[in-house]
Amino acid sequence: xxxxxxxxxxxxxxxxxxxxxxxxxxxxxxxxxxxxxxxxxxxxxxxxxxxxxxxxxxxxxxxxxxxxxxxxxxxxxxxxxxxxxxxxxxxxxxxxxxxxxxxxxxxxxxxx
Length: 112
What we know:
3-stranded antiparallel β-sheet, alpha+beta, 8 strands, 5-stranded antiparallel β-sheet
């Protein structure tokens, strides 16, 4: 693979399992400030605090002292916000019998 492909991520297939696993590993351990979900045109806050976790080929979102979202890595779609302050998670929630859910997770800001 050439230097430019590595630098710009060209050639990576976002639907492949390896890409999704790599993205889940990037997000593992990330602290969460709050989580929103679009319900009937309104952006509702559904959780505060917590963290993102990768455990046994499943991706978990723990907020407010409870697990809010649990999805197999093979079906997880995760896209960073353009600001870099969060991520949009989409996939079947195993806690709700596989109902498709789209959540926007906003990270805790740490000055580096």
